[in-house]
Write a structure and sequence with these properties.
The chain is mostly beta strands. Helix content is 9%, strand content 45%. It has two domains: 99 residues, Immunoglobulin-like, CATH 2.60.40; 130 residues, Carboxypeptidase-like, regulatory domain (Immunoglobulin-like). It has two helices and 19 strands.
């Protein structure tokens, strides 16, 4: 009687499995031996994707192209809203990318919002309606132009770490202030600052222009170029620059507001005339035991 060869059966099944696996893997290979790079094809079991590109243009300067950092743009948000209602989907990309492919979405027809953001603020939104996303396919959207004016509104207040007002002789005793706007390289830019206490606008000329002491309950505002900026504030007591602050911030474009809140000036104890008054010296320290 002929015995059944179990080892031969196992080898036959294993060989068939290997051949099937090889066929599957080869179907995903390109002619040069690598994996296929057809961006228009997506795993049919996964869903659909979209590809998009964008630029930022200044509508007040003949649609000149702007860099993301010129308007403090940080990201582009992609929001898909199903036509006819239902739950939407989102994706997000760094602004500087310029051209991307999204994550996988469910197939369907969508209204798509492309939002240029600066931190938590929205600079501009472009909507594309009725985009059909097919199973297993990538859909290329038309290039998008965001319209952003490279201008921002700045607002802040000025205070010190000392108790009491900025300008009183028995407190900080500041007599005049110098405020300068600087770009990301630290170079001063002329700017006009307004204070809500009835005084004339203060034209900071990057030279020697100063203004009278500004109290800590007053707001200072200015219209400035957008992007990364620095704010330099000096509080003088007589001729001594006793109080200083240098703050870096992002000013969003499209006339949005950069609210810096209270800018706290620090006493410069290296100035000889800034350590003589009781107010500037601060509270007495406890005597050591």
């Amino acid at each position: 009687m002929k015995l059944f060869d179990h080892s031969m059966a196992r080898r036959t099944v294993l060989s068939a499995f290997c051949l099937s696996l090889a066929a599957v893997l080869c179907s995903a290979c390109s002619d040069d031996g690598g994996f296929g790079s057809d961006a228009a094809t997506v795993d049919a079991l996964a869903g659909a994707t979209v590809s998009l590109s964008w630029q930022i243009r200044d509508p007040d300067a003949g649609s000149a192209v702007l860099a993301c950092d010129e308007v403090a743009a940080s990201a582009v948000r992609l929001a898909l809203r199903p036509v006819g209602g239902g739950s939407g989907s989102n994706d997000s990309f760094t602004c500087a990318s310029g051209s991307v492919t999204s994550r996988v979405f469910n197939p369907g027809t969508y209204n798509i919002d492309l939002v240029l953001v600066a931190g938590l603020a929205e600079l501009d939104t472009v909507t594309i309606e009725g985009v059909a996303l097919a199973l297993g396919k990538n859909t290329q959207l038309d290039p998008v132009d965001f319209a952003v004016v490279p201008r921002s509104n700045l607002t802040f207040q000025i205070d010190t770490a000392l108790a009491g007002p900025n300008c009183a002789s028995n407190s900080a005793g500041i007599t005049e202030m110098r405020i300068e706007l600087r770009n990301s390289n630290g170079i001063c830019e002329p700017a006009t600052f307004s204070v809500d206490d009835g005084r004339l606008p203060y034209n900071s000329d990057c030279a020697s222009a100063t203004t009278a002491c500004i109290e800590n309950d007053r707001s200072v505002t200015a219209t400035i170029p957008s992007g990364t900026r620095m704010l330099s504030i000096t509080g003088r007591t007589g001729t001594d620059a006793c109080f200083t602050r240098l703050a870096q911030f992002e000013a969003p474009g499209n006339n949005l507001t950069a609210d810096l809140g209270k800018q706290l000036l620090v006493v410069d104890t290296g100035q000889p005339g800034c350590t003589t008054s009781t107010a500037l010296a601060g509270p007495a320290l406890p005597t050591a035991l």
